[in-house]
Amino acid sequence: MVPNSYAKTSDYIKAKQLTLGELILTHERQFIVPLNQRPWAWNDAKDVKFFLDDFWKTIGTFFDPNSNPKWAKRNKIDHPPHFLGTFVFYERSSKEFEIFDGQQRMTVIVMLCAVLRETAYIQMSASGIHQPKANDVYGGFNNWLRLSPTEPEPKLKPNTLFNPLFSALIFDSIDHKARTSAIQKLPHDIKDHATSKKLINSFDHIRNWIKEITDVYTPTDATNFLLAAHDTLRHLFSCIETRILDEQYSYEVFQCLNARGENLTSADNIKNELFKDSEKYDHQNISDKWNKIGENVPNQDVGEFLRRRHIALHGPCKQRETYELIKTQEIAVDQAKTLVTQWHQDSKLLRKILSREADFVNKESLERLEIIFDILNVSLAYIPLLSAAKVFLPEKKAEFHKCVHVIENFVFRVLTIGHMDTAELERKLGESARMLTNEKSVTAFRDYLKAQTDDLAFERAFSNHTERRTKVQYYILREIEKHLLGGGKGVVPGDHHSAKNHIEHILPKRLSKAEGRTHEWAWARANPDKHQSVVNRLGNMLVLESDINKSVGNHEFFVKQQGKYKKKKSGKTSEILCFSNSDLKWPAQLCDSSTWNDWTDLEIERRQKEMSKSALEIWTI
């Protein structure tokens, strides 16, 4: 093949060195954040700080903050401008440049310019000879934000979801009061979005940094600083502009720039792959669905949702493998538009599960889902729950509930009590989810998880378990108390939202220091380490009515049991509400002094072993 038959590089890519002012101000260009790009992701303590440090170092190199007047240009500076890096654009037209690399830097630049414009506006409001210069520099910074003085369109245009936020935060609001008001008027799905909060925090970080500098200055000195800042950004920051002339090629360039995954999440790479694999006319639809997925899933973490969904439906997926596995096993075998629609539908299912929508499942399932996620705090449980929802809902709510109950009991046994490694838990839940997806059988699902946990090991672990989380304590004790009723009549403790029942530590967490009571719980006082080691054992706790719990306080065991004690000074016998006044099962059992005539670590151990027998019957699979 002759050399001139190859494609010309210049037909696809062009590059040149520019100052930042030449890049942004020389042409009426609008810089557009394309739909495949991630939103604002810089960290204030690292990335934003580094940029501001570079800005401060550069302005201080070329201008003197201690001159008279302040911020005069230094003489004979033999120092190169600060290099800001390479910006990569797809040149949609001569006036529309899509940012494929450099979006975060472009965003922090316009935020800084918006803060400096606000500072100039403040100086314009103060009378003095500085006012003409303040007016000029206000207009100068406005040019960094607008296509032209008469053009309302912003220089930087984010994707559609965050357009209103950028307008309120950066482009349209002249001062802090106007900005706060504009943000408050935004729809909740925008202002409450995690990315919005992160962007607002970064803006405030920059604003506070500039205020620390300018608040100590006179209006004249502050204006001189603004003039120096403007010249620094315009003339003393250099960069390389790289223009991609072919759109499809721009996605390949983006992927190449991030081949090692620096600063990009798996979600960023997956999103780019979707755009690369789809037609231009589908991009807006894909972007809209992607944003809606983010609104549906926990912490708006689309990457983690897709990873767990892949585990539930396709196979194991470690975090570092998320992009590659979804690319090869999902995107490669389905159309991007169809696939993102499926992801969106599944994200809606997950939202209904996690938010416990009342019309989605039956009442018993709602209660059990609350236990799994809010009490036991097992977020990995949504892997098999997503499979169960896809298989059984909305028609077979009873079958879905059976799955919920199996999952609750399984995670309680192996994680809450058994302390299983989370990677191993994820593996087992993933295998059960895929089995449910393929076989659509609750029986097979239950049998698989039952085989993953041993009754003897669970009973042994339960009998030795120490629990410090109040919600989990109450959950365990309440389930055992309900079990003791045996289906008969009796009082069922309220759920964990109820204020009518409290957790009673029979051996108190804090022993009385009152005069005349220091002889109580002598064995625990003599051995503080033993006291601390057994006070949060399950055998030392029970559910008790709140008024009785308050009454027995940190009294000795026989006082809690019988409700009588002698006052030290008067010698008179006082009576209080005690265990015998309770309508619950366990307090009544503990009133049997022939069985429970003392309360030491031995009794705590004995009682917890008894409780473990009940636990085996309650949390069966």
Write the layout of secondary structure elements.
Elements: E1 13-19, H1 20-24, E2 30-32, H2 44-62, E3 63-64, E4 72-73, E5 82-93, E6 96-101, H3 103-124, H4 131-145, E7 146-148, E8 151-154, E9 156-157, H5 163-171, H6 176-184, H7 188-191, H8 194-214, H9 219-235, E10 237-244, H10 247-257, H11 266-276, H12 283-296, H13 302-313, H14 322-329, H15 336-355, H16 363-375, H17 382-392, H18 397-417, H19 422-439, H20 442-451, H21 455-463, H22 470-485, E11 501-505, H23 522-526, H24 528-534, E12 541-545, H25 546-552, H26 557-562, E13 564-566, E14 573-575, H27 585-590, H28 601-618
Parallel strand pairs: 2-6, 2-9, 5-10
Antiparallel strand pairs: 1-10, 3-4, 5-6, 7-8, 11-12, 13-14
Helix pairs in contact: 2-9, 3-4, 3-8, 3-9, 4-9, 5-6, 10-11, 11-13, 11-14, 12-15, 13-17, 13-19, 15-17, 16-18, 17-18, 17-19, 18-20, 19-20, 21-28, 22-28
